[in-house]
């Protein structure tokens, strides 16, 4: 193992690339296919064209080995289920009749069959389709897609490496199929699964694969000895010498930790490791296990999850250290570039100076190539790039956008007292009861009302200049009047204005805060054909003027009942944006919190007695390893309290969360010190109410009794039964009646009926108390 030869061989690669195409051609083709406007062959043609375009782009940029098989019509985990023959029983007929339609049926469901469940891919905002497995699952290799895409890339004369979800991660991401006992552990299927992987690997070898990458990101989480043993067994088995491609086992998003010695010892041919962000500890860990003698190391030094340029000097230093630790060191992105937008050069509205700090997939690819060249040929060969990188980094560090003295001084002056309400909960609750005069079991909603076609048309008309701002605002006001009129008539106690002016709960605020950037083309896949354009937290955050006060006071002027002010909380603002990498997340959260605190205070001053600060993302940004949880929850809950603690004791602070599992953050929910929390609970039959009660939660709770993810309208009896269940855990003085989440995706007829039933159920129970 000599470092000079390791360096001389340094190649550039990436783990995967955005699938959608420059103009989201893939979305258009797939949605066209669903609507019957695009034929199957046309769809396949568009897909092949996009793959070819991506590979050519990568190759022209100087990437030596392109990834294949990372492309997907919907999701790569679903593709893996197909590759392994793990088709749920309810979809088998559809898949047999037409593989493409059957595939989309698994992804989206049909009139008659439910789709696979969808959930977040680790701590990213990408969602995958959860494999459904059981003791009777029979795996069968179907390598057609992987082989075809490899063949396409090889046909272009490129050196290509198929990328597959690895067997251990696949099983760890799976859940028991419907009808299978919840205690079933998919990992027990490993021995049955490995021969199928071996078959796919052999097929890829036969098709010309030299290397195959197996992604095992699930191993970066805290894992039991049983799981680590399974990983050891899997790679001992797949690594058995024979006619197989060389195996590269990849991990990303955090350190491999205890799994690193396991994989380092396994008879595989290389490891791809993430050396960015939370995973930077891999460097020390790798040295501690004695490196990877005899193996290839693919070093992920270009962050595949943020939008910022790389620090070349820092990366070269990391790469230099790694040269002494492996037989061959290649340079890569830390993970697939699927998680970042395609091309920063497409952004015309961003100040050119600031645009130079941005790196999307194309720019990150160029960075990987530059670093590989610097490693192979010495830094002299990339002198110009190094100088430009240094200049851009220092322009970012010295910019007034990233360093606003007023924002920094205010954040530095924050004290514990700023994050504490002036009175303890019990006293506040009494003051709020007197001030608000609400009945027992008060009824409310979570904020949004249906985003109707008229509202979308109004926004489109405004953008196209068919109406002016005044005309647009008239339409919003009309909507607010309708929404309030309905709520009053239905007998709801705490009203909302319905959020008709908001396109999105994060973007709406991001557009009004200084320090946030919006992109024009920065689309990132969320799931299937759904793409989002997360705003970018680029600089220090401040609020030039109130953001919601005008609409809230307009709504309040129309009614005597309390209208809730509605804000998105600081943690959710971070979770659904691209964040800064030049300061700790907690610092950014604090800046956002202080800007929102001003909004909360202004709402109160304008007459709001009830203010809701939504934190649906509090749970989802928990660090992957439990070692990081305490620190995260400390700054996250502090940011929430900082947002909400400036108000009088008799002003009631609500919060809202909507993911079914709260079990591991009950303490953090308590630490928010919100007066009222509404939570998703309808599907889990009020489970969360019991969990909070058991944990001794002392404040008011609104466990949702209307599942807004479904078009079903709960009748009065059903809502009453759910409320009775809630009353078994939470006393009547502290129980609220509300839906699971906002109503923006529902239609008016359902919403009307469901809310009327909710009010009737609350009245029925009040009558009996
Ligand atoms: N207030 C928001 C709404 O009702 C909350 C959305 C959410 O929790 N995701 O739409
Ligand atoms: Zn919600």
From TrEMBL:
State the needed cofactors, names only: Zn(2+)
Assigned EC number: 2.1.1.14
Q: Which residues bind L-homocysteine?
A: 446-448, 499, 614
Compositionally biased spans, kind Low complexity: 1-13
Q: Which residues form the active site?
A: 709
Protein's name in the database: 5-methyltetrahydropteroyltriglutamate--homocysteine methyltransferase
What enzyme category does the UniProt record give?
transferase
**Keywords, alphabetical:** Amino-acid biosynthesis, Metal-binding, Methionine biosynthesis, Methyltransferase, Repeat, Transferase, Zinc
- The residues that hold 5-methyltetrahydropteroyltri-L-glutamate are 24-27, 120, 576, 620
Do you know which Gene3D superfamilies this protein is assigned to?
A: 3.20.20.210
Keyword Cell wall biogenesis/degradation found? no
Q: Which residues are listed for Zn(2+) binding in this entry?
A: 656, 658, 680, 741
């Amino acid at each position: 193992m000599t470092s000079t030869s390791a360096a001389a061989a340094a190649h550039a690669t990436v783990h995967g690339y955005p699938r959608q195409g420059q103009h989201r051609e893939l979305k258009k083709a797939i949605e066209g296919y669903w609507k019957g406007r695009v034929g199957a062959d046309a769809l396949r043609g568009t897909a092949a064209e996009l793959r070819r375009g991506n590979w050519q782009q990568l190759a022209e940029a100087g990437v030596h080995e392109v990834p294949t098989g990372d492309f997907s019509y919907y999701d790569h985990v679903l593709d893996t289920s197909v590759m392994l023959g793990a088709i749920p029983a309810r979809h088998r007929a559809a898949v047999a009749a037409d593989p493409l339609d059957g595939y989309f049926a698994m992804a989206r469901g049909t009139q008659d069959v439910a789709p696979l469940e969808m959930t977040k891919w680790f701590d990213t905002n990408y969602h995958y389709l959860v494999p459904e497995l059981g003791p009777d699952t029979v795996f069968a290799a179907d390598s057609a897609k992987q082989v075809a895409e490899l063949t396409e890339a090889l046909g272009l004369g490129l050196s290509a490496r198929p990328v597959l979800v690895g067997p251990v991660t696949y099983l760890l991401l799976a859940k028991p199929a419907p009808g299978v006992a919840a205690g079933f552990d998919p990992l027990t299927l490993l021995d049955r699964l490995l021969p199928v992987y071996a078959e796919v690997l052999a097929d890829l070898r036969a098709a010309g694969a030299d290397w195959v990458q197996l992604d095992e990101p699930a191993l970066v989480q805290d894992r039991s000895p049983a799981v680590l043993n399974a990983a050891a067994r899997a790679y001992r088995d797949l690594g058995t010498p024979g006619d197989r491609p060389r195996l590269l086992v990849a991990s990303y998003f955090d350190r491999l930790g205890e799994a690193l010695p396991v994989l380092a010892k396994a008879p595989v041919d290389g490891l791809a490791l993430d050396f960015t962000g939370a995973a930077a500890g891999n460097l020390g860990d790798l040295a501690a296990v004695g490196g990877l003698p005899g193996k290839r190391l693919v070093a992920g030094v270009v962050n595949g999850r943020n939008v910022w340029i790389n620090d070349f000097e820092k990366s070269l230093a990391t790469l230099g250290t790694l040269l002494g630790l492996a037989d061959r060191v290649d340079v890569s992105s830390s993970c697939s570039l699927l998680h970042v937008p395609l091309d920063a050069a497409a952004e015309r509205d961003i100040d050119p100076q600031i645009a130079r700090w941005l790196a999307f997939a194309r720019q990150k690819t160029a960075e990987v190539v530059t670093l590989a060249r610097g490693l192979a040929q010495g830094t002299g060969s990339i002198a110009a790039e190094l100088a430009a990188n240094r200049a851009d980094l220092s322009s970012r560090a010295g910019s007034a956008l990233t360093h606003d003295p007023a924002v920094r001084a205010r954040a530095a002056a924050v004290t514990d007292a700023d994050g504490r309400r002036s009175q303890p909960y019990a006293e506040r609750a009494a003051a709020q009861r007197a001030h608000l005069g609400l009945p027992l079991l008060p009824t409310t909603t979570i904020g949004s009302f249906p985003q109707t076609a008229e509202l979308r048309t109004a926004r489109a008309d405004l953008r196209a200049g068919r109406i002016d701002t005044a005309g647009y605002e008239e339409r919003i006001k009309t909507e607010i009047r309708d929404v309030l009129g309905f709520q009053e008539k239905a007998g709801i106690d705490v009203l909302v204005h319905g959020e008709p002016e908001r396109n999105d709960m994060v973007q709406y605020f991001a557009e009004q805060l200084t320090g946030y950037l919006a992109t024009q083309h920065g689309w990132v896949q969320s799931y299937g054909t759904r793409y989002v354009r997360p705003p970018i937290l680029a600089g220090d955050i401040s609020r030039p003027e109130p953001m919601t006060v005008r609409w809230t006071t307009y709504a309040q002027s129309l009614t005597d009942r309390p209208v809730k002010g509605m804000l998105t909380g600081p943690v959710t603002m971070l979770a659904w944006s691209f964040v800064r990498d030049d300061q700790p997340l907690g610092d950014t959260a604090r800046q956002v919190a202080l800007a929102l605190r001003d909004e909360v205070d202004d709402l109160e001053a304008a007459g709001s007695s009830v203010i809701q600060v939504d934190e649906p993302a509090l749970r989802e940004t928990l660090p992957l390893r439990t070692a990081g949880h305490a620190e995260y929850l400390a700054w996250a809950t502090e940011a929430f309290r900082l947002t909400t603690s400036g108000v009088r004791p008799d002003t009631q602070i609500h919060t809202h969360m909507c993911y079914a599992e709260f079990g591991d953050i009950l303490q953090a929910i308590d630490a928010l010190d919100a007066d009222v929390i509404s939570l998703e609970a309808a599907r889990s039959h009020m489970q969360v109410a019991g969990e909070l009660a058991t944990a001794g939660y002392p404040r008011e709770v609104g466990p949702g009794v209307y599942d807004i993810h479904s078009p079903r309208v709960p009748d009065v009896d059903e809502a009453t039964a759910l409320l009775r269940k809630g009353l078994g855990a939470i006393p009547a003085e502290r129980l609220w009646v509300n839906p699971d989440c906002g109503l923006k995706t529902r239609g008016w007829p359902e919403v009307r009926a469901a809310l009327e039933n909710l009010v009737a159920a609350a009245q029925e129970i009040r009558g009996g108390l």
